[in-house]
Structures are given as structure tokens and as C-alpha cells.
Amino acid sequence: xxxxxxxxxxxxxxxxxxxxxxxxxxxxxxxxxxxxxxxxxxxxxxxxxxxxxxxxxxxxxxxxxxxxxxxxxxxxxxxxxxxxxxxxxxxxxxxxxxxxxxxxxxxxxxxxxxxxxxxxxxxxxxxxxxxxxxxxxxxxxxxxxxxxxxxxxxxxxxxxxxxxxxxxxxxxxxxxxxxxxxxxxxxxxxxxxxxxxxxxxxxxxxxxxxxxxxxxxxxxxxxxxxxxxxxxxxxxxxxxxxxxxxxxxxxxxxxxxxxxxxxxxxxxxxxxxxxxxxxxxxxxxxxxxxxxxxxxxxxxxxxxxxxxxxxxxxxxxxxxxxxxxxxxxxxxxxxxxxxxxxxxxxxxxxxxxxxxxxxxxxxxxxxxxxxxxxxxxxxxxxxxxxxxxxxxxxxxxxxxxxxxxxxxxxxxxxxxxxxxxxxxxxxxxxxxxxxxxxxxxxxxxxxxxxxxxxxxxxxxxxxxxxxxxxxxxxxxxxxxxxxxxxxxxxxxxxxxxxxxxxxxxxxxxxxxxxxxxxxxxxxxxxxxxxxxxxxxxxxxxxxxxxxxxxxxxxxxxxxxxxxxxx
Length: 566
Hints:
By secondary structure, the protein is α+β, with helices and mostly antiparallel strands. The protein is 47% helix and 19% strand. It has helices at residues 11-34, 45-68, 79-93, 96-115, 124-141, 150-162, 168-189, 191-196, 201-218, 239-242, 274-287, 309-319, 358-366, 382-392, 407-418, 432-440, 448-460, 501-513, 532-543, and strands at 9-10, 121-122, 264-271, 288-296, 299-306, 321-329, 347-355, 370-373, 394-400, 423-426, 463-469, 474-476, 479-481, 486-490, 493-498, 519-525, 548-555, 561-565.
């Protein structure tokens, strides 16, 4: 069915372009995957571009639906509304290096349309400006731009568009022809492409997207570009199969992939301020390569290739709030030669727990858990958690972070070891007393899913509290505290402010038991008064019938007292 051409770059044109581009990438996805050799020969560029644009298309449809359900029917979205939705959808759904760059290209275009305010559409001049800003924005987002990639193709498209006059159709066709010529030139700019006998996969994807733009304005789809050079060799397993041992020429890490590059691809969305993102760029640039950070206005998409995936996520945690974290292992796993001793047999299941003191570490170890010690004021890195999982040497691992602030770190560690073939379940325990409750019902002989459900249920049924000493003045839910005040925190919030550890602990325990309970767990730190445990046990016996109390010594755990009520 012939496409009805659009005259202006309005909201309907954006919607049409997005749909046509998605179909074009769907048709060429496998072809693009097959020629993917840079920056990593992992054969997924076409798929990543398709999934990124699929997210963009869903966002565009949502903005149209939103205007349809407005009272009175609304006047429909503007071109800026539709383009912003397309860019935002691509940002939150970006996959891989290519998808992340495509998201920034779309954002660059959206910025130009947004500058027109509420204008319903833009013309050929506006489209030229949008393509120029898109190319510049994408190049700026890449830490170390390399020629012969999608960046070169985008710049050539913008250059050609600037030299074109006339309407949107003329501009789009000029951009397409410029991009097509630049794509054909990529093997001469990048040696890895020339050796493989292919053009750049990301650039090929962009040409498909620009071809859809031409079809949007002219109603005619341009011919597909040539993707392989005349002397290209047959690739029995795709282009990736040819490139074993090929140096991509830009990896910084020691790596464990066949080509010597970094071992992991790390991608996450990040909520952060501009200044924090600037610092993040510098830190990630030291950790790895293929760094692309796109977005703005408080929401970013971060992509980097590294050897230490945990460190890349931790950098994001320090910059803001990372989420939708994806970690992909490029390598084929550990390879053992005949000269190496055979690996010891894996256990079926293990529990790995982060604990805040030596005493608790001993308690958890006696219960069969592998522990990571969290020293006061010094949270463990995800790499330490990964090493603990490896020490446990099990096929299935239950991970207990025992601290709300370690959730992202533990999740990053879990993602990394999953790429090594370990089945990991992360139970979001917020305190060591919740971890104790979970560990108490752990049964290794039970099915993994059933064991995780029971442990999660036990942890969730345990309210937790801690008694700490304030170091400075600040406002709390219970009022303003001063340095030296004793604070009782229940489920993470300050509920009691006092001057004595024992009295504050008693007030906290009373509040917790008002809702009922069967077992009280007390974990004493080195700073706890000698009589506090005896006093609280007596309080429970006197005031709360049929409630048992257990006491453990936690050692240097950072808080004088931890309390759990099951």
C-alpha cells in the first residue's frame, strides 16, 4: 500500500516516520546484525536499534492517545510534542551502543522543534536545523568519537541537508543520499570494517531510518544501500565469526573477550543533575570505553564497556539514582585447558549475605552463609559481593544485602554473576535482623523458587529497628535532634529521640510490639551498655506474654543495638 506523503514535519509526520522506520529496521534487522563488528562483534546492532525504536513508537502512540482522550477531543499534539515523545521513548528503551546514539540523535531533533514552541509543524529549514543539531548532539555524547561509524554517517547527512533547498522531502532525500555515501565510505575509515568486508552496522541502521524519513515526505521508499564490499568473505557464523582475535583499536581494559576488549556492556537509566553527570563521564571514561551518555533534564541513559561492571554501576549510584540496569557479558565464559586442574564441583545452593559486624559474620557463617563484611561507614563494593558469590561456588545463590542502601550495589553484583551462569535471587533485606529471619527458614533441599519465597516471606514479616547516636543536628520525623542524641529508627525512619540508649531502646521495642510479635531479636554492638540486653529481656517477659527473645553479639556493627520483631 502506497504511503500518503506528508508536506510538513508535523506530529502526523513524526508518527508516520516512526512507524515506517520501525518497519524498515524490522526488515533489515538480521542483515544489520550480521555485519556488526564494531565496537564489539556481538551481532546485535540491528536488534538493538529495532528495540530502541519500538520503545520510541510506543511513546509516540501514547501521546496521540492522550490527546484523543482529553475533554473536547483536544487539538492534537504539536510536532514538538510528538518528537519529544519519540526521543523520550528511545531514551528509556535504548539498547546497546547504537540504540543509545540513536536516542541522542532523536533528542537533538526534538530540541530544535521544542525551540519553535507551540508551532504545529516545521518546514524544510527547520528539518535542516534539526538534522544538524542531531548530529552534533550525538557526537558530543560519545566520549571518544571514532570516524567510520554512525557518527560519520549522521554528520554527512546533516552536511548534505544543509546544502539542500526546498521542502521537507527535498531535505530528507539529500540527507539520505549524503548518509548513504558516507556509509559506503566507512570501510575506508575504520580498518576493522575493511578487514571484515562490511560497512558500519550502526550507520546502516541510520540510513534505514533516514530512508523512512524520505518515504514519509515523498511516499516512495529509496533503494537499500550496499552493506558488503565486493571482496567480502563468506561468514558462516555472521561477521562476528570472522573477527575472533581482531583488535578493535579502542579498548582500554584488560578484558576477557576474544578481541581483548572489555568483558561487560553496562547500560542503565540515571536520574541525576548535570554536574553529577559530568563527573560520572570522567569516572566511567577511566573505567572502560565505548562510553555514551545521552539525555538531559534530569534523566540520562548511560552506556559503557568495562571489565568491572560493579564499579560502573556504583559510579551511577554516586551520581544519582540508576535503574533499569542491564549488564551483558561479551565473552564466552572461562575456558580451561588440559593443563589446568579441573574445577571443583559446584554446590547446588548457597546464601551470600552482607553483614555489618564480625559477630554477625560468625553467626551467619555458622548457619552456612558466605559473608561480606560491611565495616562502619564503608559499604562494600559490588565487586566484593561478586567475589563472595564466586567463593560460594554454587549453581544457585540467594543474596541478602541487609541494607536498603546496598540494593543497587547488590543488584549490579547479581546481574554480573548471572552472566557467568549462576542463578541468583536477590531478597531485598533492609537489616541484618531480616537476614537472620530469612536464614532461619532456609532449606537447601527445597526447590529454589519455594526456598526464595519462604525466605522472602520471613524477612518481610520481620520489622526492624536500630538505636544509634546522632553525630550532628538535623530534622527528623520525630523532631529536631542534636549531636549526641540517641535515635530510635523503626523501619528506617526516626521514631524516638532520647538521651539514653537503654530508655530509647525500650521505647522503640514497645512501639514495635504494639502491633504484636512472637520473637524479638537483639543484636548488640560493641558500644551497647552492658545491661541493655538484660533490661529489654525483662521488659518483654513482664509486658508481653508468649514473646521470646534471642540475643546476639554483633561486634563493631556501627549501631549500639539492632532490633528485630517477627
